[in-house]
Amino acid sequence: MNKKTTLLILFALVATISLNAQRIFATKTGQILFNASGGAEKIAAANNQVDAKFGEATGQIVFAVLIKGFKFENQLMEDHFNENYMESSKLPKADFKGYIKNIKEIDFSKNGKYPANFEGDLTIHGVTNKVSTKGQIEVVQGKPTIVGDFSIKLANYGIKGAYIGDKIAGDVKIKVNCKFQN
Amino acid sequence: MQLKSFIIGLGILFIGKHGNAQNVDLFAEENKIPSTDIVSSTFKSSRIVNGHSIENVGAGVLDFRISHRFGAISSGSYNLFGLDQATMRIGLDYGINNRLMIGAGRSTYEKQYDGFLKFKILQQQNGERNIPIGISYLASAIYKSMKDPSVNYIPYASDRFSYAHQLLFASKINDYFSLQLSPTIVHYNLVDSAKIPNDFKSIGVSSRIRISKRVNITTEYFYRFDKLAGYYNPLSLGFDIETGGHVFQLHVSNSTGMTERTFINETTGSWGKGDLCFGFNITRAFTIRKPKELKAIKW
């Protein structure tokens, strides 16, 4: 082998390594809250076992959550949510698959708060809709935290029930708060 | 460039390309969130009609329960078809955690006090582990505080106690049908004569049929292996109707008792003779302790 070839090999190896270096940020303890209060009664729940991942290079981001993991203050409400509205024994998961559109503008090596735009497919109750929302990524010592909120129309996800639009709001506010590890 | 080095270079570039493919496609990955799905709502309430279901009240929830049993409908218009003769039980149940609940109550019948604990031994679940049934254990103690009319024998306090032990085997077969078997032993500290045993074995068969999102039909029957003379097997047919924070349970039964001892072993009515009694249970749940997920949340 001559010198040229060795250089070529070295160069190619370096290229390989840098291409390999996509970091994946992940968490299994993200939090999603929702508030569906339509009247005086508070209809809200929290799930602290959100599975989320995103890739630094591609900007791909996925969230997945078990419907039964949503905890309500009122046990009966939780039973109704699962059995009558979400049919969680048949449709146990909700997920989001999308992109952080401006991932290139976020410097994960520098502490700070970065505005982030999310866009993708949200699947709830077996029905998929496109959603887009603005949120924020805060980086602290290389660990990003994503916060954001958006609202969805229950009617768009085939969630039906007598109380929707009355005690239960037709538009449900959703808040996401996920702290990622790397 | 030599041909050899050119080939090596190409080969390495190919590896490099391969490396590029390691920009993992997150969309293609299957999400491995723990998928243990503990079956819920096997029954709609912690009681089926008179007897316990496999359901507990949730952790930190206090359930206030009022049960009414009227007299026999066959007693006629003079008693307004039984409505004149109400007996009732008032009780409080509390969920200590997701598996253990306790409760206490007072019935007008024999001025009984009762206390119980119910523990989920096994929970029906799908997913990582498939367990098709749930098993709970119920232990209850019943204290009869009514003064004894007998003057020949003054009972000790312990004579006034009876106990029930039940294993509850339940399966939510699908969203519309659940079945429960409840082998039971009731122990009386004192019985009327030496010929009568102190322990009474029986088995309960109960079901829930969901007919709409908010209405369920329930059935409850106990077959007694050891019988006290003059009493019948209890059979009840009910409706569970859900509203926001309540479950209403309306039923007809040949039994008016609300403690295990009373409704299983001392049912005086007979379906054959038309001794049916109307009754209802109302519950209202209060959250005493919020789930930890909901602490420190600001809306």
What does this structure look like?
The complex is a heterodimer of chains A (182) and B (299). Chain A is of the alpha+beta class and 182 residues long. Helices cover 16% and strands 51% of the residues of chain A. Chain A has helices at residues 3-20, 75-86; strands spanning 24-37, 44-55, 60-66, 71-72, 93-100, 112-124, 127-140, 143-153, 168-179. An 8-stranded antiparallel β-barrel of chain A has the order 1-2-3-5-6-7-8-9. The longest helix of chain A has 18 residues, at 3-20. The mean pLDDT of chain A is 88. Chain B has 299 residues and is mainly beta. In chain B, 8% of the residues lie in helices and 43% in strands. Chain B contains 2 helices and 14 strands, in the order αβββββββββββββαβ. Chain B has helices at residues 3-20, 260-265; strands at residues 37-38, 61-72, 87-95, 100-107, 112-122, 125-126, 134-144, 161-174, 177-188, 199-210, 215-224, 235-242, 246-253, 277-287. In chain B, the strands form 2 sheets. A 12-stranded antiparallel barrel of chain B has the order 2-3-4-5-7-8-9-10-11-12-13-14. In chain B, strands 1-6 form a two-stranded antiparallel sheet. In chain B, a hairpin with a 3-residue loop joins strand 12 and strand 13 (246-253). Mean pLDDT of chain B is 88; it is low at 16-21. The chains are: A alpha+beta (182), B mainly beta (299). Chains A and B meet through helix 1, strand 1, strand 2, strand 3 and strand 4 of A and helix 1 and strand 1 of B.
